[in-house]
Amino acid sequence: MLSRSTVVQSLRSIRDRFFDTRRQRNEQSDGQGTSNDVTGPSLDNLSVDMQFLIMTFLSPQDLCRLGGTSTYWRSMVRDPVLWKYFLFRDMPLWRSVDHLSVPQVKLTGSAVLDDSEMQFDYMAEYLRVCPACRNQWRHQPRAFESVTSFFQSFVPVSEPQFAMFGPGLEQLEVSLMNTIMYSPHILPIAGIPQRQIDGIGSGISFKYKDQHRFNIATLYSTNRTERERARLEHLNLRSKLFVYEEDSESNIPLSINPMFNQVCQAVNGFIFVANAETERGTDRGWEEECAQIRVMLDPAVGAVSRPILVLSCVSRETADRRRIHCATVAHQLQLSLLPNPWMVQDTTAETLTGLLDGIDWLLRHSGVKM
């Protein structure tokens, strides 16, 4: 991450150039030089260190307003080093990212910006991906869209179905699915499992906001006994959901197991539960998970318009336990390469924090009118 001293140095350079230019203009106009400092009690007259400190407490909207007060503050607020600092400072605090708001920058902050980075508009990028700005500028439906929604409300909508899979269902100390099942005040169960799938999957209907019903087909890698043994012994098992290359020890899948083709073709979207705990292990797991998502979203199996919700899940939130933030999960899973709509939502298995926000996004992008 960029250090504060690097940002102050960049701002000081902008300030010096600004007042040098002003002094040169004044010398050309009346032959008299002016001081490099602003006189009088003014925000402009503070040291650059103090000006930067003040800016760190301002919201993005307030920073933009500050930039509109004068030519000087416009130059300071437009500094790409300043906004790169804010981006890398705030990104770990954001709880979600999607296909429209994923940062188009490297996720490692260097000590200085090279020439290409200095040309990149970090301010515009921050305002595009910041959740507060996204919520403020969310698209408002036009009149004809409201009329269309009204008529669609008379059309019966079948219960949408989603397939849930991923290592976060099995590797975490706290079971996400068990918490969901025993938390009717958060997500009431509207129907008991109707079908068992070879002992590693079943479908359960839930009710959302007391009006929307949807079904989740939970697909595990193997049966409960083998899953629990693998979790306790930290074993990496091949998932029965997929087909692998014969006589190979690789866990990179080639295709979906034909047994689950019909299930995956029928669903309206997918929920992938990722293990976002920092102790999750090596990078090899990310490669396997990328392949699983690509295989499940294969256009030959279903339309690319079907969304995928990635629950970036940890067992519990504590002061001494860190999580891999959602933008990094999106990068590791290479979600930007997908043609499908996608979202990564931070979720906690113990409290289900973030789950309803993810479900809300999934239903909206599956064509369910909220």
What does this structure look like?
This protein is of the alpha/beta class and 370 residues long. The protein has 15 helices and ten strands. The chain has helices at residues 4-30, 48-56, 60-67, 71-77, 80-90, 115-119, 122-129, 131-136, 143-152, 176-181, 224-233, 261-266, 284-296, 326-332, 355-365, and strands at 96-98, 161-165, 189-191, 201-208, 212-219, 242-243, 255-256, 269-275, 308-314, 342-348. Strands 1-10-9-8-2-5-4-3 form an eight-stranded mixed β-sheet, sandwiched between helices. A two-stranded antiparallel sheet has the order 6-7. Strand 8 (269-275), helix 13 and strand 9 (308-314) form a beta-alpha-beta unit. The radius of gyration is 26 Å and the shape is elongated. The two termini are 39 Å apart. The relative contact order is 0.11.
Question: What would the keywords be for this entry?
Answer:
10 strands; 8-stranded mixed beta sheet; two-stranded antiparallel ribbon; 370 residues; alpha/beta; elongated; 15 helices
